[in-house]
């Protein structure tokens, strides 16, 4: 069972990468395989809405999405992380989200039944993180995925961090809780 973590920040070693990697460490501790992808060093073009992917389930844009498509197809669980940019997900993550339209066209939804969750990092505690998590959840639901929250005692939209992620003790508690719930949900969905 594989959980894929994607850091949607344009910063290679920023707060989002730290938070997603921490979640994957917790998941690995629960006995699942993990894979980390950062979008900071990827060239991902914008979807043009050409729908050429309808027939082939491949995108005509030649860029770094190919291996990411493969990882998304292989994974049983997905954690998407994004910094808050103007109250919304980052541009790299939004480009990736839009490019996954090929998973929905021309047959059964390829990501249907997988487990998904979100992590959002912002400058302030109420800096738009819940809005970002709402966008991530909308994306997951549009792919017919099972959406997981961070659960009790918080049970909010997912994990949220503010300021320097590695120093945000409360935020890291939400990351750890979310990771444990993703691992448990993947095991339950995959019958282990």
Please give a structural write-up.
The protein has 192 residues and is α/β, with parallel strands linked by helices. The chain has one domain: Rossmann fold (3-Layer(aba) Sandwich), CATH 3.40.50.360. Helices cover 38% and strands 17% of the residues. It contains six helices and six strands. It has helices spanning 15-29, 53-56, 65-74, 91-99, 129-142, 169-189; strands at residues 2-7, 33-38, 77-83, 115-122, 146-147, 159-162. Strands 1, 2, 3, 4, 5 and 6 form a six-stranded parallel beta sheet that branches. α1 links the parallel β1 and β2 (33-38). It is globular and about 45 Å long. The termini are close together. 45% of the residues are buried.
Fold topology:
Blueprint: E1 2-7, H1 15-29, E2 33-38, H2 53-56, H3 65-74, E3 77-83, H4 91-99, E4 115-122, H5 129-142, E5 146-147, E6 159-162, H6 169-189
Helix pairs in contact: 1-6
What descriptors fit this protein?
192 residues; alpha/beta; Rossmann fold; six-stranded parallel beta sheet; globular
Please sum up the structure shown.
With 192 residues, the protein is α/β, with parallel strands linked by helices. Helices cover 38% and strands 17% of the residues.
């Amino acid at each position: 069972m594989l959980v894929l973590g994607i850091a949607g920040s344009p910063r290679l070693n920023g707060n989002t990468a730290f938070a997603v990697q921490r979640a994957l460490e917790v998941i690995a501790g629960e006995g699942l395989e993990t894979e980390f992808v950062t979008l900071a060093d990827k060239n991902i073009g914008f979807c043009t809405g050409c729908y050429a992917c309808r027939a082939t389930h491949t995108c005509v844009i030649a860029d770094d999405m190919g291996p990411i498509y493969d990882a998304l197809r292989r994974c049983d669980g997905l954690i998407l992380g994004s910094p808050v940019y103007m109250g919304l997900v980052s541009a790299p993550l939004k480009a990736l989200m839009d490019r996954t339209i090929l998973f929905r066209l021309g047959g059964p939804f390829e990501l249907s039944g997988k487990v998904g969750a979100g992590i959002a990092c912002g400058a302030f505690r109420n800096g738009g993180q819940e809005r970002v998590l709402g966008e991530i959840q909308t994306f997951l639901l549009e792919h017919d995925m099972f959406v997981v929250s961070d659960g009790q005692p918080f049970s909010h939209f997912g994990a949220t961090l503010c300021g320097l992620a590695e120093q945000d003790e409360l935020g890291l508690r939400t990351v750890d809780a979310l990771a444990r719930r993703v691992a448990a949900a993947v095991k339950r969905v995959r019958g282990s």
